[in-house]
UniProtKB/TrEMBL annotation:
GO terms for cellular component: Ndc80 complex; nucleus. It is found in: Chromosome, Centromere, Kinetochore; Nucleus. InterPro entries: Kinetochore_Ndc80, Ndc80_CH, NDC80_loop, Ndc80_sf. It comes from Apatococcus fuscideae. Residues 64-76 have a biased composition (Polar residues). GO terms for biological process: attachment of mitotic spindle microtubules to kinetochore; cell division. The keyword GTP-binding does not apply. Component of the NDC80 complex. Acts as a component of the essential kinetochore-associated NDC80 complex, which is required for chromosome segregation and spindle checkpoint activity. Residues 23-87 are annotated as: Disordered. The lineage of its organism: Eukaryota, Viridiplantae, Chlorophyta, core chlorophytes, Trebouxiophyceae. This is Kinetochore protein NDC80.
Amino acid sequence: MEGKERRQTASVVPLGTVSPSVLNARKSLGLPRTTKESKLGRKTGLISRPSLAGKLVSAGGQPQRRSSTYGNSSGVKSDPRPVSDKGYQQKLVRTLIQFLTEHGYQSPIAPKLLTSPMAKDVTTIAQFLHAQADPHFKKFSKLELDIPELFKNLRYPFGISKSALFAVGSPHTWPGLLAALLWLVELLCYQEKAEAARPHTFDDKQAAEHDFYMYIEAAYKAFLSGDDAQAQELDDHKMQQFEERAGSIDRQSTELQQAIEQLQAELQKLRSETSPMVVARGKLAEYAQDQDKLQHVIESLQAHKQSLQRKLQEHQGDLQSKQQQLSTVSQECKEMRQKVAAQTINRDDVQRMNSERCKQEEIRTSLALQRETLERRVGEQELKLEQQLDALETTIQAYNSTADRMQLIPATAKRAEGLHFEAHVDRSGAASSEIVTLNLKGSVKPALNRLRDTSANRARELSAEALALQERVDALGIAVAERIEENNGLQEQVEDLEGAWREKKGILEEDMRAAREQAEGLKQETAGVRGWGVQPLQDSYAAHHALQLQLEDAARRTQAERTSLSSELEEAIEMICSHKFEIQEIIRNTLDHVRQQKSAFDAQTWDDMAVKPA
């Protein structure tokens, strides 16, 4: 066979009795020729095989529906378009010029030229539009015969008479022909938009099937035309696609394995870290110790305060008695001066008065000494009183600070209940009730006792909640351990699936390699026996075709196995990831709840610590 002869499939008719012209004239078993640009550089015509993509969309984005106007009725139809309207004709001319300009029309074109064109211009435009629809079109032989045939094949709904094409530029002929050309332009625009929308109408599975179908179609055409180089190029290209897809699956598997390792490392890190509950228990023990220490300090300060109040009352009583004695002595001195002024003085009286004066001087001296002693004692007592008042002010300030922290002051505070807990020291007060401007026993102490009882009840409730939370944390720990065991089991399943996938992949690769080697051997045998005769050649073709089918079947089984293993691996990974995220969410919610309960418990504990001393 020569290289340019079309290769024929095996037939029941003896090849030796059939002439080459008959062989090459028979109908092909392949699909009709198409004008769509494929990966191999061929196009398909407007009338091609049914699309695998379902309904295509029109230029306006709506589904294309077949109009009943374009049926195969035998009657003559009237054109409803206003083709005789000058404005409509100008619009059609502008649209036609725009399409020709955008698609590389080489001949001169202008609106004036299309007002009443010549037959040559119409022929050139019609040939250009026909070439856009069919790249294999060459030229019109006769305009009056080819143009009606063209529009009839394209199912143009209105007739074009042959007699009208002898004067295409006449006013009664050109508008209808111009409308027909615009109909063809709209059809070409629709084809472009439909071809542009075609890739978006396939999902992954349909796209893979479509690509494989296109490969089978191109390979079969190359086989029928005897183009072995192109057939080999197609096989190599498809094999490269399979290898790239296998490499992509391997990379995805590697990425998933890395993600699993990262998740395992993160899980191991969470296991190795100290439990937040242990840290919280340690802090709770420290807070309890601090509470006991502060309780002892408050009790000692309360006792010291009571002793100072008793001493202050005693000193105030002594001061009042000394003041009374001083007023009595002053009154007696005044009375004595009045008596002395009223008496008559004689010698005996002078002597008596001198002796009394000496006695009084002695008494005065002793009283002066007593006065100095008393004044010194009063100064010491006043100094002690000032010190005690300073200490009392310090204690009152600490009390006010604690009450403010406990939200007891001012009277509008959260726990004040409308009572005034704020205390002040009045240094000018005479009695203890006047020095401290607060009724401690009557109002403050009962209110604090009520607050202490409430806090104690709340502390018991929080203790019960903490115990319940601890039980829940223990249960969650058991659940986490169970989930970890499930994760380990799922990991083992993933490893088993990966091992099985690798084993099947190796087996399939060996099968494909053996099939390729067998195909190469058959090709060499075919090349060696080309001149032996018809029957050996037919056998070689049949063997080659069977081997090709085996190779395609092996490729399909390989792809199916890879797809199945990949889906199983993805499902396992998704189960592990969802399980891990669920555990993380449970742990996070538990930790948040424990932190909230701990914060509330700490706040209540501080409140109880501040309430108990009062």
